[in-house]
Amino acid sequence: MVDNIPHLYPLNPFSGAVVHLPHLWANCSPVFDEYLFKVVWSAKPTDPNFVIVFLKRDAYSAVYCRTGDARWKLIHDSLELSDAIFYKEKLYVVDDEEGCVAAVDLLHQDVVEEIRMPELVAFARGSHLERMYLAAGPSGLLFIVRQMKRSRYCSQGRNVKLQTGGFKVFELDETTTKWNETKSLGDGMLFLGLNESMWLPSSNFKECKGNCIYFTDDSSYNIRRPILREDSGIFHLEDGRFGSFYGDSTKRLYPNPVWVVPHP
What is the top-level taxon of the source organism (predicted)? Predict the structure, then answer.
């Protein structure tokens, strides 16, 4: 949750518990809601040694803090970040500028490993602009590419509206540090959006389907005005089919929808 004085604090919607964090006034613009992009955790907020990372939309930069810190710290200012995840006690980030996935040592502010992005196979003609995500699967780190295609123009043709056209999923071979494309998540599902990207087993959720990607509209266009959030749905990884998980009423959400995963 965000206050009017750019103070970011996690709120448990079920218990009402709040985790207090440093103020962000010195680290971002007062027009805060235009810059909030994504928050990722190293552990549950109840863990006394958690690290929280906040990705900023303005310059694809990121800041982080540890338990008890008085200020947020910038993560390696040479990186241009579009996603991040903690995996095997390291922070992995998507660096758009260098075209790689980088492992960052937060203590020493060093990039300790760089893994080139997979050689992406071209999507259907007329598509452009990919969004990239990282997720932790049961057998390795996953790199997900979301293909965006131009659907139509908005407001007298001045703004291009983008819509999801497909996904590709790659799994990291940690021995060779190569990405291998996969069409199977097994029993698993991926949840993508403004949240930290998540892999979950479908066997724990009776209403959900395995080997599918559940995605929400995480676009930033017209961010200060209520708009239709139409780009949400289910993608069947095996055959490329799209489906919906709710009716048309969910397309009128503002701001962007997020996933909530209850933990005991």
Answer: Eukaryota
